[in-house]
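This week, think about what follows.
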Amino acid sequence: MDGFERRKERKKENICQAAFDLFSVYGVKKVSIAEIAKQAKVSQVTIYNYFGSKDELLRDVITVFMNKSLKEATDIIEANLPFPEKLELFLAEKPEALSALNSDFLKSMMSEDPILRQMAKDFADNKFIPLMMKLFENGREEGYIKHNISNEAILIYINMFREGKRSDAFLDIGVSKHLFKELITLFFYGVLGNPLNNNIN
């Protein structure tokens, strides 16, 4: 890649980051191309030349976001850590993750746009779910997951926990690290507190 191509890629990355920052705070509908251009310090013409339209820019932003989230999850799952620590890190999520995004932006990701819908489905089917299956098999190999519990049930359980973390009720409480530790204990052991494996602290 020559100097011109590198500058072009950096400029595209800056535009996507500016769009992401604005979309995540104000929502997609309320943000104009002019505002994105100002934030990215480029002309509106440059944005149209690179992306064609606001819809195409949104799709690129979502693609970048999904790939970033996938990399973070992959780094956790492939780390040299015991299964409970990996899962706790995965459940914790970073503040800049989905929980921080404007609800309008989230709706845009699952909107009536068939291209966006297909993007989300392809990402889940071909990237995210296979990565989670790897995590679950890791948990079974280490003796933390019962073999009679299906991957589908575990995936639903994890998604329920992560979705709950994004709820207004959860965010309004202002969960401390100590309270989050309690929630993680409930996640692993349930209300009865009967661990499957004594190695889990």
